[in-house]
Design brief:
The protein is an alpha+beta fold. Helices cover about 30% and strands about 20% of the residues. α3 runs antiparallel to α4, α8 packs antiparallel against α9 and α12 packs across α13.
């Protein structure tokens, strides 16, 4: 039986439509609302769905499985299912149903186009929903104010079955990836995600549903099948999220490949990657950390990546690395720096509290690994001189990291303009442990001891700010809560450096907390409570990766 789905949108792989559930008021115990995830997290909702009796709208409780969303009322239910990425079937089983919207924009219009068919033009959402009766009766109770539909209401009798089909504004993707597989059904997808210990069976199914339902078909700027962060409101693909999601798709290599390359499709001529993309927008205001070499290496170790993939990745990964070494570094002997916390992915970390730009130790460490990866790939592709050059640059970056940012007992971040060390208790300065055995043994052991201390490691996982710090906040985003990506990077580094017991302990704590609290964006480090967006794809991906490889029960 799949774990709790209350906080997960009801959707289907490939679809830009999703149903969310909200606690109701008055006589309505719960409301179900159809939304589009196109373009922006702020896209307006499209329609509210509720049971309808002779006495009017009825109280209902939503019950969800991966295949169907039912709104249960006393005398029957409204049953909703996806018949394809853009097609929804809705029927009244023993009760009627009401589709309504009073959140009407300036040009939103319900247009009758036949006896049993309407088109709902939702201007701000950049989409049109075609509503057609299959069997039964549907009547419009909508109003018109002279310019637009004032109040949209469509009432269906018991037994009525209708279909809702999205007709998006965009005709298709701006660039098309010609060869790809069909989107898998949920049960097929579930069979392909990593196996987990038996105690995590239902949590594995929940993680698989969160990932599967976060997929969208190519459209607009998304030229590939792409996994969004969520279909709640974090409806973008950020340029490091894709790597964690690709890692969990090792048994679906074609889909893993699309996730990895999705951001490289938008790389600028100088090598920069976007901060995020969705079907309608690309943002280059910030960037995200260079974890792409680390991820490629890990997938290569798991036999996910073939030589064709390596050949396609080598040039754009080289350009991405060189962008950091030129655009974000002061001279060939300087350390690379972040312009903003958003560039690091740790948006409001205390590392950035005293100003920017910041030379942060995680950035140098990730570039060391990325250049190691490029050296390996160059060797495989027969580029011996380039392999040697990447190896030399990696060694020099590691030397700079240790010379400039290691104090003897810890790593520090420094302000680029004056070299001032930042007084921060952020876990971000411990991320260089991801280097594993590339670090001197005394440095690695000191980092491992610090990470495993009560300052960071709680019963639920790793806090992102020391819980002893005055800056610690239980719901402080990157100033305390447990996050999946930081956990994944640190567990991986500890395991690579030989601290397998501590790696297992952290992974076990994280996975058990996810089993209790769901696939949240982040978690209260002390209580374990899920915070912010409650259906986050990288949380699901990291859970699957850690539960299958590192927990105490994993084989």
């Amino acid at each position: 039986m799949i774990a709790d789905l209350r906080h997960v949108p009801f959707s289907a792989a490939g679809s830009y439509l999703a149903f969310s559930r909200l606690t109701g008021t008055g006589a309505i115990s719960e409301t179900v609302r159809l939304r589009t995830v196109r373009g922006s997290a702020l896209t307006p909702e499209l329609l509210e769905v509720m049971p309808l009796t002779t006495n009017g709208p009825a109280a209902g409780t939503a019950i969800m499985t991966p295949e169907e969303l039912a709104i249960e009322a006393d005398s029957g239910s409204v049953r909703i299912s996806f018949e394809g990425p853009g097609c929804i079937s809705l029927r009244g089983d023993g009760v009627g149903f009401l589709l309504r919207s009073d959140a009407i924009g300036p040009y939103d219009t319900l247009v009758p186009v036949g006896r049993d068919e309407w088109r709902y033009l939702r201007y701000e959402a950049r989409t049109t929903i075609r509503i057609r009766v299959r069997t039964g009766s549907l009547r419009s109770l909508s109003t018109w104010d002279g310019v637009r539909t004032g109040l949209l209401q469509l009432a269906g009798d018991p037994g009525t079955v209708i279909e809702l089909v999205e007709e998006p504004e965009a005709a298709g993707p701006l660039q098309v990836i010609p060869e790809r597989e069909a989107m898998p059904g949920f049960r097929e997808f579930l069979a392909s995600v990593p196996e987990c210990p038996p105690e995590f069976t239902s949590t594995r199914e929940l993680a698989a549903y969160v990932l599967w339902s976060a997929l969208v078909e190519p459209s607009g700027f998304l030229g590939r099948p792409s996994m969004l962060m969520s279909k709640n409101w974090m409806t973008n693909l950020w340029s490091w999220d894709n790597c964690f999601n690709a890692l969990s798709l090792e048994r679906i290599p074609w889909l893993a490949e699309h996730q990895y390359f999705s951001v490289f499709d938008h790389q600028t001529q100088d090598g920069r990657l976007p901060d995020y993309i969705n079907d309608a927008f690309r943002s280059f205001s910030f960037v995200k950390p260079p974890i792409h070499g680390w991820a490629l290496r890990r997938m290569r170790e798991r036999d996910v990546v073939d030589e064709r993939w390596l050949a396609a990745a080598y040039e754009p990964l080289s350009r991405w690395t060189n962008w950091w070494l030129t655009a974000r570094r002061s001279g060939s002997e300087g350390l690379p720096h972040y312009y903003h916390g958003n560039d690091s992915g740790w948006d409001n970390s205390t590392v950035f509290e005293s100003g920017v730009p910041i030379e942060s130790p995680d950035l140098a460490a990730l570039l060391v690994l990325q250049m190691d990866c490029l050296s390996d790939v160059a060797t495989t592709l027969g580029h011996a001189e380039q392999a040697e050059d990447w190896s030399r640059q990696s060694e020099r970056m590691l030397d700079l990291l240790l010379d400039r940012l290691w104090t003897g007992d810890r790593f520090v971040a420094r302000r680029e303009r004056d070299g001032r060390a930042i007084d921060s208790s952020s876990l971000l300065t411990r991320v260089p442990v991801v280097l594993g055995n590339r670090l001197p043994r005394d440095v690695f052991r000191t980092l491992a001891e610090d990470i495993g201390s009560d300052d960071f490691l709680t019963a639920n996982g790793l806090a992102t700010e020391s819980i002893q710090s005055a800056a610690y906040e239980s719901d402080g985003y990157w100033r305390g809560p447990i996050w999946a990506p930081s956990t994944m990077l640190i567990v991986d580094g500890l395991a690579a450096g030989g601290e397998s017991a501590l790696a297992d302990r952290i992974a076990d704590a994280f996975c058990r907390n996810v089993a209790r609290s769901g696939m949240a964006e982040n978690f209260d480090a002390l209580s374990g409570r899920g915070l912010r967006d409650r259906a986050y794809s990288w949380t699901a991906s990291v859970f699957l990766t850690l539960a299958s490889r590192y927990t105490s029960q994993a084989s």
